[in-house]
Amino acid sequence: MLERLAQPTPLLERGATLHHEGRAFDSLYVVQVGALKGVTGDAVGKAVIGRFFLPGEIIGLDAIDRGRFNQHVVALETSALCRIPYNVLLSQTATFPTLMNWLLRRISAEVLSEQESRMAFASGNGAQVLARALLDLGQRFARGGLSATRMRLPMTRYELGSYLGLTPETMSRLFRRFTRQRLIAAARREIELLDVDGLSRLANPFRERRHAMRVQHLPRLEARG
Q1: Whether residue 141 sits in one domain with residue 109
Q2: What is the pLDDT of residues 11-39, one digit of tens each?
Q3: Are residues 166 and 196 in the same domain?
Q4: Alpha carbon distance 132, 120 (integer Å)
């Protein structure tokens, strides 16, 4: 049913705008191929990357409440999307309750993803933040049917650093360090996660420490002769 509501849109070339911040909300957009970034202005008018949209993800869920898009969304590379007119979607929910269930589940997933991202990238040092970001990107690519460990970053390292709040110098230093430690293999935008467990330990050191403490305090079983 959802496929019948979706309308193809013209291909967006790299740098093309899907919609501007403040435009009236009328449709949801599903990324089929490619990737886009959501850009907002900070308190002094500087452009800040607040979101990346990858294959399978939906653009516009956060605009439903206020009725306006709250980000300037731009294609990072040639991208194909389909459009779902919101009024048409709502008109079909009474006849097809599964559509309302789908919509609510996607909104819930959007809220949860936003909360997890804020928590993951708001604390920790640069290495921890970048490790979390690479693991997160891998999981999101996997949900879109792509590899979780081999990826071509659609964004530049500068753009990824902007999103994470890391300077270009810090990003270059961390990529060199991760490569040297055999956590990743990197060639321009081609990234392979070589040691997912190692990245996970780096991303969540306190979880590993708590696990080690629990193991350390487990009661020992005496050998019986």
Answers
A1: no
A2: 999 999 999 999 999 999 999 999 999 99
A3: yes
A4: 7
Q: What is the mean pLDDT of the chain?
A: 86
Hunting for tokens 């994470």 — which residue is that?
Answer: 164
Using alpha carbons, select from 143, 153, 135 the residue that is nearest to residue 34: 153
Structure tokens at 192: 């392979």
Helix (H) or strand (E) holding 210: helix 205-216
- The alpha carbon dihedral of 105, 107, 109, 111 has a sign of negative
Diameter of the chain by CA atoms?
78
Its pTM stands at 0.83
Q: How far is CA 26 from the centre of its chain?
A: 23
Residue range of the domain that includes 210: 126-216
Residue at which a domain ends, from 104, 121, 138? 121
